[in-house]
């Protein structure tokens, strides 16, 4: 089935429109289990939690890794804390097929 991933949508990543589609950009390490699993099965769900509003949003769809040149445009200096080797940085795009918003606040 679809594996779920918790993501933090922090600048420059987030939700945007591309034509008639909604996409979510996110990142992971090329050395991670998440990277290996998405490479084999791109069907996934991303969960974004907002503790201030007690709301979470689930985006379901198909993920694809961005080409290196496009992915570099998402690199930010704050990511150096997460990546000792910047070559492991991998930017992805999820084409949203289903969206669910739940507010418990």
TrEMBL record:
<dbReference type="InterPro" id="IPR011576">
    <property type="entry name" value="Pyridox_Oxase_N"/>
</dbReference>
<protein>
    <recommendedName>
        <fullName>Pyridoxamine 5'-phosphate oxidase N-terminal domain-containing protein</fullName>
    </recommendedName>
</protein>
<dbReference type="Pfam" id="PF01243">
    <property type="entry name" value="PNPOx_N"/>
</dbReference>
<feature type="domain" description="Pyridoxamine 5'-phosphate oxidase N-terminal">
    <location>
        <begin position="20"/>
        <end position="101"/>
    </location>
</feature>
<dbReference type="InterPro" id="IPR012349">
    <property type="entry name" value="Split_barrel_FMN-bd"/>
</dbReference>
């Amino acid at each position: 089935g679809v594996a779920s991933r918790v993501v933090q949508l922090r600048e420059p990543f987030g939700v945007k429109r591309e034509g008639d589609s909604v996409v979510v950009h996110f990142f992971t390490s090329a050395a991670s289990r998440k990277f290996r699993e998405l490479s084999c099965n791109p069907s996934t769900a991303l969960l974004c939690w907002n503790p201030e509003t007690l709301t979470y949003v689930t985006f379901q769809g198909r993920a694809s890794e961005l080409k290196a040149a496009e992915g570099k445009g998402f690199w930010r200096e704050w990511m150096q804390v997460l990546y000792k080797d910047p070559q492991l940085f991998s930017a992805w795009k999820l084409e949203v097929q289903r969206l669910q918003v739940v507010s418990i606040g």
